[in-house]
Amino acid sequence: MIPLVAGLAAVADRYDGFVLDLWGVIHDGVEAYPGVAETLAELKRAGKRTIMLSNAPRRSGALIEQLGKLGIERSLYDEVLSSGEAVYLELASRADPVFAGLGDRLYHLGPERDRNVYEGLPYRSVEIEAADFILNTGPVDLSESVADYQDLLERALARRLPMICANPDHVVIRQGKRITCAGAIAGRYSDMGGMVVERGKPDPAIYDVALARLGIGDRRRVCAVGDALHTDIRGGRAAGLDAVLVTGGIHADELGIRWGEAPDPVRLAELARHHGETPVAAMVKFAW
């Protein structure tokens, strides 16, 4: 069985720092969850370093701005890193051989708000027929599904265009509703035979960047906190970190609970086994 704890105070002594997911832990896409600011303040008072690590397909500064609008003051956490920032850094440096060979004409599959992933860099946004690669930041509209992009993917596949995915998440829960993310579109393209490169959780590479910014060398003294077994928990484990699962997020329906309700321990254990992951503990919400 996975220990169900009331909050991070039960495990905090084991760690010097925490890698915190955003969507499903800190907020639901629209509002911060109750008690989040207080929990962050307690972590700060306990001397724990924190980094927000998100699979958001936009740069880190946009996340800081969003958190401020949600009432989460900048002084409450130490660092922020997004998958969009990781993609921006790769596009800028071209150090990775895949990124070095992309060309400079991109087709942006995604909403205008995500343009900062490539703005200011030497790339041109063009139509799919003229593109060297696809930069996928997710559906343009929150109501869209993968099926809405099938024709576009077929046109891209005919030209053998590589796809850079700036958000490996397949779905998030936005105020109780499931929203399709870039990772689901990338998954379909990969299944069709397209080449896909992702940056973000659960890829261990993004944890290397996150831990460098956190400034804690001993990974045994760092704990990841997230609501998704297949990204947050798996990514943390692959990076050598312990991980705590927040059960009221993306897996709430599978557990048969609403936000703030405790899951059945047997059902929780079965869910973890199904995903092949074992968090060191679980809690119903992000709390101290």
| Global shape | globular
Summarize the amount of helix as a percent range. 25-40%
Strand content: 15-25%
Kindly report how far apart the N and C termini lie. Answer: 22 Å
SSE string, helices as H and strands as E: EHEHEHHEEEHEEEHEHEHEHHE
Low-confidence residue ranges: none
Strand order of the largest sheet: 3-2-1-11-12-13
> Count of helical segments?
10
Radius of gyration computed on alpha carbons:
19 Å
SSE class:
alpha/beta
Q: Give the tally of β-strands.
A: 13
Give the biggest beta sheet.
6 strands, parallel
Whole-number mean pLDDT: 96
Describe this structure in words.
- It is globular, with a radius of gyration of 19 Å.
- The strands form three sheets. The chain has a six-stranded parallel beta sheet with strand order 3-2-1-11-12-13.
- It is built from ten helices and 13 strands.
- It is an alpha/beta fold and 288 residues long.
- The model has no long low-confidence stretch (mean pLDDT 96).
- Helices cover 31% and strands 18% of the residues.
- It starts with 16 loop residues before the first strand and ends in a 5-residue tail after the last strand.
Explain briefly what this protein structure is.
With 288 residues, the chain is of the alpha/beta class. The protein is built from 10 helices and 13 strands.
